Amino acid sequence: MSNITIVSTTAIALNLISLIGTIFIGLICIFILSMLLPSIVRQRDVVLILVVNNYLALLTFALIAIPMNIDMARGDYNLSIGMETFSCRVKGYLFYASIAIVFNNLTLQAVFRFLRIVYPTYIWLQNVLTYLVIIPTMWLMSFLFILPVHVWHDIQFIRMENTCFLVIYSARGFILCTIIMNCIPVIIMNILYLQLKRFIRRTTTTISARSKRDLIVLMLIFTDVGKPIFYRLQYVIAVIVMIVLSFLFVLVTPQAKAALVCFHKPNKVTSLYEQQCVSASKAIKQVLLETNIFSDEI
């Protein structure tokens, strides 16, 4: 009896952490998006577009995860007992699809940075219109690739969780989700990592620093295990990873940081802030210019 109580208390605590975390993710995404969207309209920078795309994916995850957290909390306190319905299964499907979207978009950003560094002369690979086509395609592919687990009925109502999840005994569902959400991004980013590592050895200090910053994103992969509170653990770990990503997307993107600094500069600020914004923009342009010059020399 005591073990059941401990597991129940742990599950409730994990759900509370998840709920707070997902709300926090949603607020961060709304805050960041409200500041970056005006910069995209003015600059039409591919890097900023990809960062905004990542935050939209995180916001989508939060909007799907929060109702599921609430359902679990209502079940924990016996406020409402759910049942398996089509909408419940769709909600569970969207939860896994949103995770796939986040990590596939993360892979897209890694691919863009790789191409920008290694093949800077291929202008069409850095064109805004190219990524305005690729981004919706990535979203659609993420939804379609996870769709089989819904069609196979591998996402079912879990009575203890009071919501629908991918059942723990569904081998094919877990294999598919692992391949789509983890394996494919890991393989692609490992290939990029090895290629960039070889490229860095032949480049200047400036390009090397940019490449190392880009490589930080490539190492963000999560796995989880644990049976008594398996579903809560996978939920909490996913939320923690999303929180880390919500901060990391800005920290590793100079354009995004410069846009945030400029956004906070009101019309009546001193010229010091104006100089900081201008200097940040010039520094970014200088790095890109040096990269192109260096590539031409090679």
Descriptive key words:
298 residues, mainly alpha, Rhopdopsin 7-helix transmembrane proteins, two-stranded antiparallel ribbon, 9 helices, globular, disordered C terminus
What does this protein look like?
With 298 residues, the chain is mostly helical. It has a single domain, classed as Up-down Bundle (Rhopdopsin 7-helix transmembrane proteins), CATH 1.20.1070. The chain is 78% helix and 3% strand. It contains 9 helices and 2 strands; from the N terminus they run ααααββααααα. α2 packs antiparallel against α7. It is globular, with a radius of gyration of 22 Å.
Q: What is the rounded distance between the termini?
A: 70 Å
Multimeric state of these chains?
single chain
| Major β-sheet strand ordering | 1-2
Supply the number of helical segments.
9
Helix/sheet category: mainly alpha
- What fraction of the residues are assigned to beta strands by DSSP? under 5%
Give the C-level CATH assignment. Answer: Mainly Alpha
Entry summary:
The chain is mainly alpha-helical. The chain has helices spanning 2-43, 46-76, 86-118, 128-151, 171-200, 205-218, 230-251, 254-263, 271-297, and strands at residues 155-158, 163-166.
Give the topology, please:
Layout lengths: L1 H42 L2 H31 L9 H33 L9 H24 L3 E4 L4 E4 L4 H30 L4 H14 L11 H22 L2 H10 L7 H27 L1
Antiparallel strand pairs: 1-2
Helix pairs in contact: 1-2, 1-7, 1-8, 2-3, 2-7, 3-4, 3-5, 3-6, 4-5, 5-6, 8-9
